[in-house]
Design a protein that fits this description.
With about 675 residues, the protein is an alpha/beta fold. Helix content is about 40%, strand content about 20%. It is built from 20 helices and 23 strands. Helix 16 (about 435-440) links the parallel strand 13 and strand 14 (about 445-450). The longest helix has about 45 residues, at about 525-570. The relative contact order is 0.09.
């Protein structure tokens, strides 16, 4: 009643759901010496087969049956038991149901233990060494990190890892310390917790964040895995998340897009989306109004039902029939309530907020929905503040928190909101997809430049809230960003929505909707995302799997041996001198460079000597750097040293610099820096 979130964990009967039990297919995993059995259920999602593991079966004891009881349950031990089942059990389940697998894609570290299961199989079944098995597993694995904060990564303490994996190490014939090193950074103490993201990166040949900005943040977070490698070259790319358009788009908007863009518009190109400009303003506006009308109807019903469920009388819920107005500017905010998302930012200036809500000529209404993690009291406190503010009789007809957030609520909000509000503290939003779903429905985004919005905002497709990242005082930062948000709403959003100088349809607002759909439509769909994953990751990784796995994994064996040899000798690799033909890099002038290099016991074919040049920053960093490979200038001298030569052209004005480095080189490396070894001049 006071607005504090209450959780329910109802028991789900898979027999009563759209699931099929895979007959005769069960798997078993060892959890700290106790065998646990899981049955396999299948859900057919379009053409995709989704397999679900269930340990609530007669074969298990009470503790074993609880492994799959809930998503957010227990502590670290419950978590590691679930992740062993998902990872190791997942590989076994795919075998049990007869699904051939060439590429594994692990999202965050949750399924990461699948790599250990595959390593064990290669070592015991095909007699690969530990290092050889790692290379074979890496060849066929993609890893995606989803969090921009270290607190979001699973870490398991040493004692827990010993309890669950000491026998695994013994079965594979390796030391427990070798296993732990897979989940630790270089230089970590032996008792450092096992980091699931670190293992994810180590056991994948390609990895990525989920937006361009998040890719950069991830390179900074995990640079320690590749010591000596500049942040810009840390091998973590990005594929920005997209959304399954048919699931979220309103039928009225779907009709418009089908007729004007393309019948199969979720796969439309940029050129196809440009045809949205041909849409009649009146037609697009009516589609938007119908979505808003459904939203208002849903909110009124949900508010009424919620209040009645708490014992409120019929007479005291009568006001719900007048909550919100289907004709006025509607701002939506729906997502997980986490502190960094700052759902209460608008509440920080209550009088200014009330002025927007209660304007007689240009009123605004706010609809909030969402849930906090069951253990996140700070997120629950935000919900409580919003609920209590919205219950004020003065504003309750203009502001609502919708209870019992689910997909149906989310879909209705995406379809009915005029503005989609997003207020994360940059750069803590890895991607965020709610704004993408809203955008496909013709809602305009008003967001901090974080996640996907940072790369897709173009000045005409929505609004960007200023981010005061230079403030160390978070309270002061929130004040500044809240002021920016209010300024945007008061001086840009509200006037544009209510500009009816050309008739009942807000032509300029509709023009901005078209700009949003035209620019974002081809970028925010899952079709684009899957295509990008397929072309840049899955297909290359599949080819690499075939290459390194051929002839009994011969090339994986050879690559592992080569890496061991290079790593053992790398401390003796050094650049003895670098000479250039001029002291100043003049714009447009070619400069010659010569480097003298000692390789110790390595051969010239084991390395590449590279010239790195580019504009010099305040700390002499080169950004963006250009890398040019130098060429050997003859055989080694009497002292065993090698000379390499090359040239570069200074192509920008201002401070310009260059340096030389040596990196490992092998035709089967995905990237020269994957060993994390670089010798700099």
């Amino acid at each position: 009643a006071d607005g504090w979130q209450q959780e329910r964990f109802p028991t789900l009967d898979p027999h009563a759901m759209a699931l099929t039990l895979v007959d005769g297919a069960t798997i078993e995993v060892d959890l700290a010496g106790v065998p646990v059995t899981a049955h396999i259920w299948r859900a057919d999602v379009g053409r995709v087969r989704l397999y679900l593991l269930d340990t609530d079966v007669d074969e298990n004891d009470a503790e074993g049956r609880l492994v799959t009881d809930r998503l957010y349950g227990g502590g670290a031990e419950h978590r590691i038991r679930q992740e062993i089942l998902l990872g190791m059990g997942g590989v076994r389940a795919l075998d049990a149901v007869g699904e051939p697998t060439q590429v594994f894609h692990t999202n965050e570290g949750h399924a990461g233990f699948l790599g250990l299961e595959r390593i064990r199989r290669l070592m015991t079944g095909e007699r690969l060494s530990f290092d050889e098995a790692i290379e074979a597993v890496r060849a066929g694995t993609v890893f995606t990190t989803h969090t921009p904060v270290s607190a979001g990564i699973d870490r398991f303490p040493l004692d827990l890892m010993q309890r669950y994996f000491k026998q695994w190490a013994a079965d594979c014939g390796i030391t427990f310390e070798q296993l732990m090193a897979l989940g630790q950074l270089p230089g970590d103490a032996p008792d450092e917790p096992f980091n699931m993201a670190v293992m994810g990166f180590r056991l994948a040949s390609v990895s990525n964040g989920v937006s361009k900005l998040h890719g950069h943040v991830s390179r900074e977070m995990f640079q320690g895995l590749w010591p000596g490698v500049p942040i810009d070259e840390v091998p973590v790319g990005s594929v920005t998340n997209g959304v399954h358009a048919p699931t979220w788009v309103a039928p009225e908007i779907n009709d418009v897009l089908t007729r004007y863009v393309l019948p199969s518009w979720s796969n439309a190109t940029k050129a196809d989306w440009a045809r949205i400009d041909d849409t009649h303003d009146d037609e697009l506006w009516r589609a938007r109004e119908q979505g808003r009308e459904r939203l208002v109807t849903m909110v009124r019903q949900r508010l009424r039902d919620s209040l009645l469920a708490t014992g409120t009388s019929e007479s005291d819920v009568a006001w719900c029939a007048e909550a919100l107005d289907p004709r006025i500017l509607t701002i939506g905010f729906a997502r997980r309530f986490a502190p960094y998302k700052r759902a209460t930012l608008l509440l920080s200036q209550p009088e200014r907020l009330k002025a927007l809500l209660l304007s007689s000529e240009r009123p605004v209404q706010l609809v909030f929905a969402g849930k906090a993690h069951p253990a996140d009291d700070a997120g629950k406190e935000m919900i409580k503040q919003i609920v209590q503010f919205s219950r004020d009789p003065e504003v309750r007809h203009r502001m609502a928190f919708v209870p019992d957030y689910d997909i149906a609520v989310a879909r209705t909000m995406y379809q009915g909101s005029d503005v989609w509000l997003n207020t994360p503290r940059r750069p803590l939003e890895a991607c965020g997809t709610s704004g993408e779903k809203a955008a496909l429905n013709g809602a305009l985004n008003c967001s901090v430049l974080d996640g996907w919005w940072d790369e897709m905002f173009d000045g005409d497709n929505g609004w960007a809230i200023s981010s005061a990242e230079t403030y160390d005082d978070l309270t002061r930062r929130d004040e500044v960003e809240a002021a920016s948000l209010f300024d945007i709403l008061e001086t840009q959003v509200v006037p544009l929505f209510y500009d009816r100088a050309l008739g009942p349809v807000p032509r300029r607002w509709v023009g901005r909707i078209k700009s949003s759909l035209r620019s974002l439509g081809p970028q925010v769909t899952a079709s684009r995302m899957v295509k990008e994953y397929t072309e840049t990751m899955y297909e290359p990784v599949a080819s690499r799997t075939d290459l390194l796995g051929a002839d009994g994994h011969q090339r994986a064996r050879e690559l592992a041996g080569w890496k061991q040899r290079v790593l053992a000798a790398w401390d003796h690799v050094q650049i003895d001198g670098v000479d250039s033909d001029a002291a100043v890099a003049d714009l447009g002038v070619e400069r010659q460079v010569e480097a003298t290099v000692s390789l110790g016991s390595l051969e010239a074919d084991d390395v590449a000597v590279e010239l790195v040049h580019g504009p010099a920053g305040p700390n002499d960093e080169l950004s963006p750097p250009t890398v040019v490979q130098l060429t050997p200038a003859g055989p080694a001298g009497a002292d065993g040293r090698l000379r390499y030569t090359g040239s570069f052209v200074c192509d920008t004005a201002g401070r310009y610099g260059f340096t030389v480095r040596v990196v490992p080189a092998h035709p089967d490396l995905v990237t020269p820096v994957e060993l994390g070894r670089v010798a700099w001049a």
